[in-house]
Amino acid sequence: MPDHEVYENPLISRYASRPMASLWGAQKKFSTWRRLWVWLAEAEAELGLPITAAQLDELRAKVDDIDFTAAAGYEKKLRHDVMAHVHTYGDACPNAKGIIHLGATSNFVVDNADVIVIRESLELVASRLAAVIVALAAFAEKHRDLPTLGFTHLQPAQPTTVGKRATLWCYDLALDLAEVEHRIAALKARSTKGTTGTQASFLELFEGDHDKCRQLEQRVAEKMGFDASYAVTGQTYPRKVDAQVLDCLSGIAASAHKATTDLRILAMRKEIEEPFEEHQIGSSAMPYKRNPMRSERIGALSRFVMSLAQNGAATHATQWMERTLDDSANRRLSLPQAFLGVDAVLVIYENVARGMVVYPEVIAKNLREELPFMITENVLMEAVKAGGDRQDLHEKIRQHSQAAGAVVKQQGGANDLLDRLRKDDAFKAVDLGSIADPSQLVGRAPQQVDEFLAEVVASIRERYADRAAEGEELRV
Questions:
Q1: pLDDT tens string for the chain (476 positions)?
Q2: Which residues are catalytic, by number?
Q3: Most exposed residue of 106, 228, 444, 452, measured as fewest CB within 10 angstroms of its CB?
């Protein structure tokens, strides 16, 4: 059918980057299978099996030259994807045909290729995370001391700064990055574990030589770029690993969702907005609108990625005994789509973080409207220091606050609490102007920004100086 008549995955056509899509593409997958067959044959030859240099050279020459049409024909006939590619590779390498996949089970190529692709995908995710962290850190540094109204329970609370709030978003990602790095470090090869994890076929190939079986496993793992293989397996590497990886990706999605939900609320308050391009249309019906579509897209994709974490746990839980095949179809969906989804989220997030627009006058206005209530405890303490009775002063402030609140809520007027306090002789000795200075109410927020940048971000910036992804262009 023509392409426009069938469903296409929007993660590929609209959202994810080409580098991530390529990692999960057919060429990468089946070329990696062939490399694994080469590595297996190399290691078997090194340990004395009758495999010639000419056969190895023939295999190496055809690693990336895959006849996908022929492979599809074989799979239709054989109903087995691995054997379809064994035959296709064998047709391309007739002299080596007899030693391809020697002693191996299907999951030798399937699972080992998967851990290689997962590792490279996590490395790309780490780079994208670092790029967003650096962008948010620059934003936090620029606005380190810009006072803004804080919120708890989504209700006005003690002031903070715009920069300090951005460090909250940034730190979530720093924690995610640490988890990604841990997952990369924890990944191992499945290597040559055999059909049910017993290595029986390899033990037979090496005529009962257990040491050569162990050497084969270690050599193949090293050729794959791993220091070690999983201690024990069934037919597959532990599906617990998939669950851990999907949980890690879900955590990144949750962090992005939280931050961009904050940004959507701030956009509603007209304090901070995501980038908005010159010819961008916010609404087909309402020309004036500047909808936060990037943040909304991050939220949509993040929820999808978060939902995939359950797949990993459920699949792991149902791997009976040494393995069941009901993991296969699920993993073909959940693993690549989780990585593609997170990739898309981070591409958009970096774009947002690099281009956020701040409106200081609106921020100051919104803060001024709530500030009188924020400083009542400070006013109380200063009035007591001047000789007033604490309980009497508390009651006066309470009455004035209630009256000012009624003006705001019932009449739609401005908060006149400070004016009321100025007119009350009980507070004559209090310098209300000084107390109401927002810069004096943000505590150590500016210094916390500086410390965070030095103690957390600096090392990330240094570690990823040569690897951080740069400004992937939004596709839609």
A1: 557 888 899 999 999 999 999 999 999 999 999 999 999 999 999 999 999 999 999 999 999 999 999 999 999 999 999 999 999 999 999 999 999 999 999 999 999 999 999 999 999 999 999 999 999 999 999 999 999 999 999 988 889 999 999 999 999 999 999 999 999 999 999 999 999 999 999 999 999 999 999 999 999 999 999 999 999 999 899 999 999 999 999 999 999 999 999 999 999 999 999 987 654 555 545 545 578 899 999 999 999 999 999 999 999 999 999 899 888 889 999 999 999 999 999 999 999 999 999 999 999 999 988 888 878 888 888 888 988 889 998 999 899 889 988 988 899 888 888 888 889 888 888 888 788 788 888 999 999 999 999 999 999 999 999 865 555 776 66
A2: 153, 283
A3: 444
Closest by CA position to 372, among listed 297, 446, 437, 428: 437
- Residues 6 or more apart from 12 whose CB is under 8 A from it? 21, 340
Q: State the pairing for strand pair 357-358/272-273.
A: antiparallel
Distances (CA, A) of 108 to 157, 235, 322, 376: 57, 9, 15, 69
Residue 180: closest CA among 126, 231, 114, 226: 126
Task: Kindly state the tokens that stand for 223.
Answer: 């050729």
**What is the C-alpha separation between 34 and 39, in angstroms, rounded?**
9
Which two three-digit tokens encode residue 443? 């505590």
Q: How far apart are the first and last CA of the chain?
A: 25
Beta bridge partners of 152: 155
Residue in the structure block whose two tokens are 């080596």? 96
Rounded (10°) angle between helices 106-142 and 445-452: 140
